[in-house]
Structure formats: structure tokens, C-alpha cells
């Protein structure tokens, strides 16, 4: 029987468009080895061997986006590690849109 699920989350608002926030989230999940499981515009999820990560990007204005990262796993250490790690990578991303 699997253990109980653990949930960890991180949230932040960024001065970037929702489109750019989504692109950054997809790149970060991919770079961290997560298999991306959907193409829904405002949320991305990915999974690896023991963790499911959900990244939601909600536009607050044309140039500001609220981003939330939720990591869930039966392994507490994995869930606890991935939420802040993914958020930190999103925060530090230097990706820009090219018009």
C-alpha cells in the first residue's frame, strides 16, 4: 500500500506575460526531467518517477502573472524538494519573448 501523499507549494507574482510564464514553466519542467503531460494554456503538469508537479499561471495584467507550483508525492523529501526548486528556476529564468 502506498504511503500518504505529501503536498508542497510555492507562489509568486512575476513581471512577465502569461504566455512567457507558461513557456518558462514548460522549459523548467522539461530541463528538470519531468514528462510534460498536457497542453492546457494556463496550467502545466509534469511527472517523474515519484513526483507530480502542477504549475499554474494566472494573468494579473498584461505584464504581470501569478504563478503557483504544487508538488505532490508519496515521498515527502521529493515533494518538499521539487516545489521550491521549480519555482526558483522559474524565478531565475532569463527567457524573453521575441516579437
Descriptive account of the structure:
- The protein has 99 residues and is an alpha+beta fold.
- The protein has a single domain, classed as 2-Layer Sandwich (TATA-Binding Protein), CATH 3.30.310.
- The chain is 31% helix and 37% strand.
- The chain has two helices and five strands, in the order βαββββα.
- Strands 1-5-4-3-2 form a five-stranded antiparallel sheet.
- It is elongated, with a radius of gyration of 13 Å.
- The protein starts with 5 loop residues before the first strand and ends in a 7-residue tail after the last helix.
- The model has no long low-confidence stretch (mean pLDDT 88).
What is the strand and helix layout of this fold?
Layout (H helix, E strand, L loop, with lengths): L5 E9 L3 H14 L3 E2 L6 E5 L3 E11 L2 E10 L2 H17 L7
Antiparallel strand pairs: 1-5, 2-3, 3-4, 4-5
Major sheet details: 5 strands, antiparallel
Tell me the series of helices and strands, N- to C-terminal. EHEEEEH
Can you name the CATH architecture? 2-Layer Sandwich
Task: Give the radius of gyration.
Answer: 13 Å
- Classified by CATH, the class is Alpha Beta
Brief sketch in words of this structure:
The protein has 99 residues and is an alpha+beta fold. 31% of the residues lie in helices and 37% in strands. Strands 1-5-4-3-2 form a 5-stranded antiparallel sheet.
Keywords:
99 residues; alpha+beta; five-stranded antiparallel sheet; elongated
Amino acid at each position: 500500500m502506498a504511503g500518504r501523499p505529501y503536498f508542497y507549494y510555492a507562489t509568486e507574482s512575476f513581471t512577465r506575460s502569461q504566455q512567457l510564464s507558461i513557456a518558462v514553466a514548460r522549459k523548467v519542467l522539461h530541463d528538470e526531467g519531468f514528462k510534460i503531460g498536457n497542453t492546457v494554456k494556463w496550467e502545466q503538469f509534469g511527472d517523474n518517477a515519484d513526483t507530480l508537479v502542477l504549475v499554474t499561471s494566472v494573468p494579473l495584467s498584461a505584464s504581470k502573472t501569478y504563478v503557483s507550483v504544487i508538488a505532490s508525492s508519496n515521498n515527502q523529501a521529493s515533494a518538499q524538494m521539487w516545489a521550491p526548486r521549480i519555482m526558483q528556476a522559474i524565478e531565475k529564468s532569463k527567457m524573453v519573448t521575441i516579437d
